[in-house]
Structure formats: C-alpha cells, structure tokens
From TrEMBL:
GO terms for molecular function: zinc ion transmembrane transporter activity. It comes from Botrimarina colliarenosi. It holds the Pfam family Zip. It is found in: Membrane. This is Zinc transporter ZupT. GO terms for cellular component: membrane. InterPro entries: ZIP (IPR003689).
Length: 305
C-alpha cells in the first residue's frame, strides 16, 4: 500500500517538475506573481513542517524528556543541513523573468541582489538536487511511518513538494536560458532533475527504512524530525527576505502566506482522516474473552458444577 502510494506521489512530482522546467518557454511570470507563488508555497511548507512532520516525530518518540530533546536536535540537524546547502550553493531563489535588467536570477529586488553572488546554473542545480534528495527522504519517511489506518499517509509532505518543485525546476531553466544553453541540454537537465525526488525516496527505503523498522521508534522520530527541519529552513529562506527587501504588496504577500498555511491544515485534516473500518482488525475482537459473554442478570445463581 505505502509503496504504491509513494509511486503515485513520485509520478506526480516528476510531472510537476518537468512542467516547471518548461514553464519559461510557455509564459513569463511577473516578479510580483512569482513572489506571490513563493509566499504561498513557503506557507504550505511551514505548515507541513510544524503541523505534520514535527508532531508526528514527537508522537513516534518515547514519552521521555530525553527522547523529546532528541527530536528537536534532529530537527535542528535538518535545518542546518539545508542551511549549509543554501549557504555554500546560494541556490534557493526563484525568478521567472529572464530579463536581468528587470530582476536578477535570485528573484529579489536590486537592493537585495547587490549582496548576492552571481548564480550559475551548475551551482544551482547541484544545490537544488541535494535539497530535492532530502525532500524525497522526507516524503518516504512521512508515508512509511504514518499512523495505521490513515487515509492518505504523507499527503501534506507530498503537497508541499509538488508545489515547490516546479519553482526549483524553473530556476534552473531560466539560468540555463540566460547561459544560452541549447533546448536539448535544458531538456536533459530538467529530466534528470525531475528524478531527484524518486532518488531520495529510494535512498530512504534502501538506507534508512531498514534501520527504523528493525530498531526502536527513535529511528522513525529522527527521520521525520530531520525532515521537519529541512522544510522549516526552506520555508524561512523564502519568507524572511520579504521582511527586509519586499516592502511592496505586503498585504497580498501576507495573504498568500496564510493561504499556504490553510492548505497545510486542510491536508493535515485529510491525512489524519482514518478509514471507516478499524485498521489491521483492531478492536474487532475483545481483549478479554470473558467480556464477550452475555451478562448474567443479578440475583440468578450460576451453577458451578
């Protein structure tokens, strides 16, 4: 069941990523519309991190202060892993406008762009691929370790990735277009990049899932908490620059952020909705055979032999 669902999720994410890489050929998004989309997706990722992944990591850990502290340490670990990828590759900026005089490839206004190093498509692709591999790990962890009986395990994580992946693919396509790379090369890189999430899923299933299944629940909690930290860092890297560099459209951008949080909450409600029938036959048989016997009315003697 989980493997089939992961396959469907991966197929949808690959399709969305390929479409994002082709988007600059079909239309040109304005800077304002791009920032609206980024705020919306960042709000979704923030909600998934704090409403889906982190609560699940805490629920999967042992009920002790040490285990809870361990969950937050793994969350910090995921945050720092994503932070250092962004720091050394400077990739996590989205821009659909191919006119460098209007906007820079980093997707912010000129005052912000002046402080950013020039972005190359190869550096962006490397950083985005590492980020996407971690997203695939997060997807597999959230699906494989959802509570029994959940209707759509991992739905929130899937929604966040499928919304965010086209922006990353679009960034690579725009940078390759600015570098005058041929259409064939752009298509090849776009196709390979689209496979990064399935690669991350396989990485988890082969390398991490066996440890979680064989060991205590701490392994599950660590993987999900790490994923929460990754999503939290991605969301913050998109949202925080708005406070300093985007003094325009503040109401609209704030509304997009709140809309993303609403999507995350709706996905949480759908994800935690359980089947009508109890999973794995739970509670279909009484724990004590004596409880299934008909009650004996008071005052009636029961023969003992």
């Amino acid at each position: 069941m989980h493997t089939v669902l992961l396959a469907y999720y991966c197929a949808a994410i690959v399709a969305a990523s390929v479409a994002g890489g082709l988007l600059p050929r079909w239309l040109r998004l304005s800077h304002r519309r791009t920032e609206m989309i980024v705020s919306f997706v960042a709000g979704t990722m923030l909600g998934v991190a704090l409403l889906h992944l982190l609560p699940h990591a805490l629920a999967s850990s042992e009920p002790s202060p040490a285990a809870t502290l361990g969950v937050f340490r793994w969350t910090i670990g995921g945050f720092l892993a994503m932070f250092f990828i962004e720091r050394f590759f400077c990739f996590h900026h989205h821009e659909a406008d191919e006119d460098p005089e209007a906007h820079t490839a980093c997707g912010h206004d000129h005052s912000h762009s002046e402080h950013l190093p020039k972005l190359s498509w190869s550096g962006a692709t490397m950083g985005l691929t590492l980020h996407t591999l971690l997203a695939g790990v997060a997807l597999a962890a959230s699906v494989r370790h959802s509570p029994d009986g959940v209707w759509l395990p991992g739905l929130g994580t899937f929604v966040a990735i499928v919304l965010h992946k086209p922006l990353d693919a679009m960034t690579i396509a725009v940078l390759m277009g600015q570098g005058r790379w041929s259409t064939a090369w752009q298509a090849l890189v776009n196709g390979l990049f689209a496979l990064a999430v399935p690669a991350g899923v396989l990485l988890y299933l082969v390398g991490f899932a066996p440890m979680g299944e064989a060991g205590p629940s701490a392994g599950v909690a660590a993987g999900v908490a790490f994923s929460a930290g990754v999503f939290l860092c991605v969301a913050m890297s998109d949202l925080l620059p708005e406070l300093q560099f985007h003094d325009h459209d503040r109401l609209a951008l704030s509304g997009a952020l709140l809309a993303g949080l609403v999507v995350a909450e709706v996905a949480r409600q759908l994800e935690t909705h359980t089947h009508a029938a109890p999973p794995n036959g739970a509670m279909t048989q009484p724990a004590d055979p004596q409880e299934s016997a008909d009650p004996v009315p008071a005052g009636i003697a029961v023969p003992t032999g």
